[in-house]
Amino acid sequence: MNIHTAYNMANIARTGDIIHLNVGGKRFSTSRQTLTWVPDSFFSSLLSGRISTLKDETGAIFIDRDPSLFTPILNFLRTKELFPRSINVHLLMHEAEFYGITPLVRKLQLCDELDRSSCGNVLFNGYLPPPGFTFTHTCSSFPSDTAQLADPGMVRIICGHHNWIAVAYAQFVVCYRVKESTGWQQVFTSPRLDWVIDRVALNAKVMGGSLGDNDKMVAVASGTEIILWTICPDGNGNEIGVFSLNVPVEALFFVGNQLIATSHTGKVGVWNAVTKHWQNQDVVPINSYDTAGSFLILGCNNGSIYYIDVQKFPLRMKDNDLLVTELYRDPTEDAITALSVYLTPKTSDSGNWIEIAYGTSSGTVRVIVQHPETVGSGPQLFQTFSVHRSPVTKIMLSEKHLISVCADNNHVRTWTVTRFRGMISTQPGSTPLTSFKILSLEDIDGHGGCAAGTEIGPYGERDDQQVFIQRVVPDTDKLYVRLSSNGKRVCEVRSVDGTSITSFMVHECEGSSRIGSRPRRYLFGGHANGSIQMWDLTTAMEIAGKVDIRGPTEEELLELLDQCDLALTRTPDMSPAASFTHSSTPRASTSRYTRIQIPPHAATALHNVSEALIDSFFGGTGIKVGLIYSSQQSETLSWCFLAIYFVFTSAVVFQCLFESAASTDSEETL
Q1: Which residues, 6+ apart, have CB-to-CB distance to 6 below 8 Å?
Q2: Rg (CA), the chain
Q3: Cis bond upstream, residue 428 (ω within 30)
Q4: Residue 174: beta bridge partners?
Q5: Using an 8 Å Cβ cutoff, are 271 and 228 in contact?
Q6: CB of 417 within 8 A of CB of 431?
């Protein structure tokens, strides 16, 4: 046997060698040929010596990876076949990329792309490409070193008004308008600024005033400075002026024709379209605000709620006074950290029946009402809830729900609101509806977007259902839309081009001029590449009943958290005054009810007794009655909840007896 023949035989023997592997503590045995038939893979480099090996006590090559995911990879290397229905495509593709199994990666990518499309799903409504970044001139009135810290092409903030949206990038703002015939069109681009935009406000429907009925206005703020433009019908913009609040601007918005800027330090700035005059007003430190018609409502650090009628502003120029009037003072004088005003449909000569919900630094939620017939009297305390243990950061009072969010990882509490002829009623009063959290991490260095552009909500004050928008981690292409009434997922939206979502907003656009056309709600997403993507939330709400998932699943949540460095993230600070430190220490929630511990077996027994009671009533009637019991969060109950439980059970019994007598043939499930 010559040397050449011996070499060939040795080579054949080497390719048929049995290789023993220890993957994450589990042993595998296979042939060298099975592991190395894919060129330039992890295994070919490992067995050729290009990668150093670590062996266990038995001599098997140790690989510190998941053995459950290695099993389908080894089966693919053996058979060149893949069975995707029995695997997690995303996890397996990640492992296949690590091992460098190119044929398997390509197959898994194809499986993944079957569920994804650059045209989006049925909810995807439109795509606005990034605008051009060519500018004819620069506004350099207020240079800022922070301009170099922001990504110039990333969308920072989106705001909407009627059928317009304003999109703020780092150093310029772009306005778009939608028409039924032409769709979305870019109508205005501001000059390039030398400072980073922190706030943006849009008024697309100026009613009267010296600017005319067709003009629109857009304003941006950075630091203490504000620039205001008017947008003409031809799309040209004229700079109205540059104004200073003298302190950092933390909120910028329009009330009618008036541009309003506020700061938590206790400054309010107002620009009026009639007088074209800017005026600053000192008030006490501001924590929250809302608007009601021409009124600006302020929640302040001293526990008071103030209002300013901005329509009367031109009449008070000589006094340099905005007529700041105290409307209500919290009984415990806790800082008013969140505020929501609801104007009921009922009107009189004195105005609307005004309802205000507010939250405090101690976690208390209160509802006050103002009767139009009792002008001389201030608002009356209507309801108080002491369910939060952290400062309330957001609150909304709508027709059907009262929603509050506290600083404990966006803990949401929702109550149903009972109304009689449009006005809030105590019979039977507000009842607890749901409790859940919305995890939303922020990027410490700001690369994940601007805090003003990533507000979770709730959105849709005038709608039957309000929604939250959840972006779990800063660098993600996925958002979850969740109902405020139960926390369930309305839909999940993903960027159609794979880019990260850096800002978002829910806005309702007016319908067409056709009879029967109604406004539609859209979710606007701003992206790291400068594009705007839109999803139809009206359609999503119509099909939401088919989904029974509360936000991200545990698997989805862990997958998202794996994509970011938690050391570089944080939970959101208190809004709107992120830099504000309360002078009063948050108080623990108190209750006048004695709390008791109900062990699980006693709670179960309580439920069984109730079911037995109902069964004794309806055993032979043919009526199906079901009770749902859940101990989702805690075994701690209060006497008041027990009372509510028995009252509800009695109500179910009497209602079913009444309906059974009316129609014995009907069958109901309660």
Answers
A1: none
A2: 31
A3: yes
A4: 167, 189
A5: yes
A6: no
Average pLDDT (316-344) is 82
pLDDT tens digit string along 128-180? Answer: 999 875 444 445 444 444 444 567 789 999 999 989 999 999 999 999 998 88
For residue 272, give the H/E element and its range: strand 267-272
Contact 614, 627 (CB under 8 A): yes
Instruction: For 249-307, write each residue's pLDDT tens digit.
Output: 999 999 888 899 999 999 999 998 777 888 888 899 999 999 988 889 999 999 999 99
Judge contact between 488 and 549, C-beta under 8 A. Answer: yes
Across 119-129, b (16+ Cβ under 10 Å) vs e yields ebeebbbebbe
Spatial separation of the C-alpha atoms in residues 659 and 638, rounded to whole Å = 32
3-state secondary structure 333-376: CCCEEEEEEEEEEEEECCEEEEEEEEEECCCCEEEEEECCCCCC
pLDDT tens-digit map of 405-445: 999 999 999 999 988 877 888 776 678 999 999 988 877 66
Is the preceding omega at residue 285 within 30 degrees of 0, hence cis? no
In this structure, the chain runs to a length of: 670
pLDDT at position 468, please?
Answer: 95
Position 516 scores a pLDDT of: 59
Residue 154 and residue 502 in contact, taking contact as beta carbons nearer than 8 Å: yes
What pTM was computed for the model?
0.69
Strand arrangement, sheet containing 216-222: 199-203, 216-222, 225-231, 237-244
Question: pLDDT tens digit string along 178-219?
Answer: 888 888 999 999 999 988 999 999 998 765 555 555 578 999
CA angle 638/643/647 to nearest 5° reads 150
Owner of token pair 């606007």: 524
Q: In what order do the strands lie in the sheet with 157-161?
A: 157-161, 164-168, 173-179, 183-189
- Minimal CA–CA distance to 162: which of 461, 462, 507, 513? 507
**481: its two tokens:** 């839309």
Distance between CA atoms of residues 222 and 142, nearest Å: 9
CA 192 – CA 104 distance, rounded (Å): 48
Tokens of 133: 């970044």
Q: Which amino acid is at 408?
A: D
Q: What is the pLDDT of residues 528-584, one digit of tens each?
A: 999 999 999 988 888 876 555 556 766 666 666 666 665 556 665 554 433 333 333
Nearest-angstrom CA–CA distance, 570 and 440 = 9
For 313-352, give one letter per residue: b (16+ CB within 10 A) or e. Answer: beeeeeeeebebeebbebeeebbbbbbbbbebeeeeeeeb
Torsion angle of C-alpha atoms 212, 218, 222, 225, degrees rounded to 10: 0
